[in-house]
Amino acid sequence: MFRKANKFLSGGGKAEPTTKQDDEGESLITVLETDEDRSALTILVCDITELMRKRLVNTFDPKETTSQVDQLATNTTENVESVDIDQTTNDERNKEIQKTSEKDRAGITKLEKEVGEAKMVALKTSALEFFDDWRDSIILRVGEVVNSRETAQNQSKQAKPELSRSDLESSTDETKTDENEDEIAEALLKLYVPIETPLRKVAKEKRMLILHSVLLLLLSLEHYNAHSRILLLHLTTSLGLSVTVLSEDEKKVARGLLTAAEKMSGDEEAKKRADKNRTSRRWKMGIAGVAGAALIGITGGLAAPLLASGLGTVLGGIGLGATATAGYLGALAGSGVLVGSLFGAYGARMTSKAMEQYTRDVEDFAFVPTYEPESEIDARRLRVAIGISGWLGNKDDVVGPWKCIGPGQETFALRFELESLMNLGNALTTLVTSTAWSYAKSEIIKRTVFAALTAGLWPLALLKARHLIDNPWYVANQRAQKAGEVLADALINKAQGERPVTLVGYSLGAKVVFVCLQQLAERKAFGLIENAIILGAPAPSNSADWRRVRSVVTGRVVNVYSTKDYMLGFLSRTSSIQFGVAGLSPILNVKGVESVEVGDLVNGHTLYRHATAPILKRIGFEDIDFQELGHEEQKLAEQEKDEEEQRKAAKPDTNLSPASVEEGVDAEVNKMEHEIEQKNKTK
Question: 582 — phi, psi (to 5°)?
């Protein structure tokens, strides 16, 4: 059986296609009937990876900015069509620089100095080295199946991606009936712009099979990292397919791998071999205690015919033959251990190891599934999402905000420091509905939150109540820092397997994400994170920090902020405000970081809990449960209404003298202190 599969690996374009009787389905060789078609696939993969590499390079290019101040890149190309700044002479560039303002030049100089620092240069070098190694392995793996290794290497040197802008209007072959799905599809199409390829003219069924085959080839590298996933997104749109096709295929493959492995564990002979192997027994015992571990058989080597039969049965529905399936998956198809590693079978052990280092600072740290599936296999996916709440109104808030993430990913909520986040939630919800806050907010609005933040112009009424919030905020903030470090350690040690991870967090949960990404950059850990969605983060907004964040995220980095989040401004008043606050302002001067203002949804820090789902929809997040979205939108409207009514009831009498206002505030602060104490006792 594997001899036939090896024809696809060693024979290149000269391999003879097996018959339907032998293979029970198609292969890339039979789908890509001509040399031109086979070359087109390799060239398309080369073009996509070249585009991905260019975007990575742009992260460290001071001319590639997203600021309004630093318009130099735009100015220098405004009147020169089709000219790359990098190809212009120094004299030409200097002439253009002279036309810009002193502020522009100062901005570029500052950025050039920033990206020229030794640590930033080392980060760029490491990121590119990792990417290039991954790209070489991908191009050779695809090329050796459809062409020859030498041909694949030559084609990779000629990659010149041409984006198909017209496809932005025509969308995909898939017919959609849901308006929400249409919006998501349109957003993704703009993010992952199709690349011109003659393969777009191939029949849709064959294009789907091409996508499926490439997914298996990527998995044969014994990982499915974030780079591989972004490559497939570009491949999907370039082939004129909906991203839904890719997501459904990922589900089928995950289920197929685990189902086939589980079936193979029923082979008595394999069980006997496993029982005789002490290492395998220890591994099996270890895996039994892992929450969410893959249900796979420990066989110590699986019979090829049984494997091909199992995979062919589960995955054959898409049309790819059993032999081709096993051949494309390579070693992964013959090892239950590798399948377990892919899905994070060793996760609990690694997380415990990470916890040993920080146990004194982070007492509560766990990945909690957001829903209970009918079976373990049904829950598993090739991608992972981790949602992190930043303060808690009740224990259900650990998981509640993240149920809106759809079934395309295996979703967990990160539970950390439950008591600290509950204390913070009690303080926040008490303060934002108080007379003191209502009075303070009216004063802040007169000056804007930025003026208050930079000049310390905080109303006396609020300063009198600051001890109610400062201590729980400080404690929870410190714990979030440590939780971010633990999370980075867990991901580096493959707690979630060899799968791409999407991180989403609000408030101090966003702080956890930010710290985690900083740690990954510090430790040069690339290819782990697919997307990072950071909402209302009490984190600095300076470009250097976010350049590091961008370097370790292959897909999207989205900073969600609200200029109406006065509470975050108040809580951040003692921080290093010279770097700005990410949750209050956009991120400038870092190519590839999206900044989205949501002041119409979030006019207070406490609204992020129910605003998370509507925000994810707005930014075009790929996986959304639209039923949960509807529930969260309704809850957000109810929360806004309740808080507005409470603010009206607590609205201060503007005719009172300052002395009377101060006396009233003192009385209410005492009342709030008692209320918070009672909440903390009954949590």
Answer: -60, -35
Contact 600, 565 (CB under 8 A): no
Q: What residues contact 359, with CB distance under 8 A and at least 6 apart?
A: none
Q: Tell me: do 330 and 375 sit in the same domain.
A: no
Residue with tokens 């991608």: 383
DSSP 318: G
Residue 501 and residue 367 share a domain: yes
Strand partners, 476: none
The pLDDT of residue 145: 87
Please list the residues that pair with 553 across neighbouring strands: 529
Q: Report the pLDDT averaged over residues 8-16.
A: 37
Among all chains, which residue has been given the structure tokens 């971010």?
Answer: 484
367 - beta bridge partners?
A: 414
d(CA 86, CA 116): 17
* Residue-level pLDDT at 357: 55
Mean pLDDT of the chain: 77
* CB atoms inside a 10 Å sphere around CB 256: 23
pLDDT tens per residue, range 171-211? 444 444 467 777 888 888 889 989 999 999 999 999 999 99
Identify whether residues 566 and 650 lie together within a single domain. yes
Residue 627 burial by Cβ neighbours in a 10 Å radius (0-12, 13-18, 19+)? exposed
Contacts of 91 (CB under 8 A, 6+ apart): none
Q: Are residues 262 and 370 in the same domain?
A: no
Query: If you ran DSSP here, which 8-state letter would residue 18 be given?
Result: P
* Distances 425 to 264, 469, 512 between C-alpha atoms, Å: 49, 10, 17
- Position 353 in a domain: yes
- Asked if residue 641 belongs to a domain, the reply is yes
DSSP conformation class of 334: G
Asked if residue 261 and residue 166 are part of one domain, the reply reads yes
pLDDT (tens digit per residue) in 454-497: 666 677 777 777 888 889 999 999 999 999 999 999 999 888 99
- To the nearest 10 degrees (0 to 180), the angle between helices 179-191 and 626-649 is 100
80's tokens: 């020169």
Provide mean pLDDT across the span 297-319.
Answer: 48
Find out whether 599 and 375 touch, Cβ atoms under 8 Å: no
Extract the tokens encoding 448. 């804007």
List, in sequence order, every beta strand (DSSP E) within 352-493.
365-369, 384-388, 410-416
**Token pair in block for residue 565:** 């989040």
Asked, for residue 172, whether it belongs to a domain, the answer is yes
Of 298, 319, 342, the one marking the end of a domain is: 342
Residue 277 makes CB contacts below 8 A (sequence gap 6+) with: 300
**439-466: average pLDDT:** 72
Q: How many residues would you count in the chain?
A: 683
Amino acid, res. 618: R
Q: How far is CA 334 from the centre of its chain?
A: 30
DSSP assignment string, 132-145 = HHHHHHHHHHHHHH
Domain that holds residue 327: 2-31+162-342
How many domains does the chain fold into?
2
- Paired with 533 in beta bridges are 504, 558
37, 107, 413, 588 from 539: Cα distances, Å: 49, 22, 21, 14
pLDDT confidence of residue 447: 67
| 356 and 316 within one domain | no
- H or E element that contains 210: helix 204-219
